[in-house]
Amino acid sequence: MMETWLPLLCGLILLVAGGELLVRGAVQAAERIGISPLVIGLTLVGFGTSMPELVTSVQAGLNGSPGIAFGNVVGSNIANILLIAGVAALICPVVVARSALRRDAMVMLAVAAGFAGLTWVIPMGRIAGAALVALLVGYIWFVIRQEKSAADGGALHDKSLALAEADPGIAPPHAGRRLLVPLLIALVGLVLVVVGGFFLVSGAVALARGFGVSETVIGLTIVAVGTSMPELVTSIIAALKRQGDVAFGNVVGSNIYNILGIGGTTALIAPSRVPQEIVVFDAPVMVAVSALLVLFAATGLRIARREGAILVTGYAAYIWILWP
Fold first, then answer.
1. Once rounded to an integer, what is the mean pLDDT over residues 8-12?
2. Does the structure show a pLDDT above 60 at 96?
């Protein structure tokens, strides 16, 4: 049994550690080059904190495990809403900015519904993947054009701000630091993430076979929660610091990246058909909980502790339904 769990645990540790180093090095290198903080937050930090999900889904797709690849995307979004947003609201009621609700939360709901609908009609091939990635690029471009300062960067900026609050090492480098050092840090982080993704996928496949459950269930649960650990930690820290709006933006921004960036890139590199159980059950659940989060946020522009308890209870029920 230990030989089954060990690769999974090692993979998760390497993914989390490598993702942090990758983001830290990339941000410091970008600061040295002179890229604006808003662009860094929306691109480097956004993709960097989603790198564990990205590498895991791509490697699973290349290994012929679409259940893990797309289960990770859908399962991460469900966990982000029910588990992470729920826990954050239990710690401190989550305040929601009206602009974040009107633009970012509605975009999250729209891309969730669009992805779910897409899986019904066509396989996730390269054309579909390219369309998803193009939508993400367009959305980032729109946000950068619309926002005049990093303080108003919406959900995608809140995603990076949550990480900066959780890890002071993400701050700009000292003036005397050379560019080579942060580049080396980013490279080491990238290597750790790739190796960690390999171990995580291998361990997940072995675990599924050992327990006699489908790879899709493992992808939707253990892999999804494991790769969402950075979002969980950063949202909890934001809630403890009474920055509920940042916690909300972190969840919404992560979900937009997961579907458009990770789902799209996975389809581009390793095209495959989304497993039928995800199409008929989990993807609709993702849309439903996305709508529930928007509904909770719209009532009084906050997610209260009672609503947080409903979200967490919902995640427990979802896991109970999934696990045989």
1. 83
2. yes
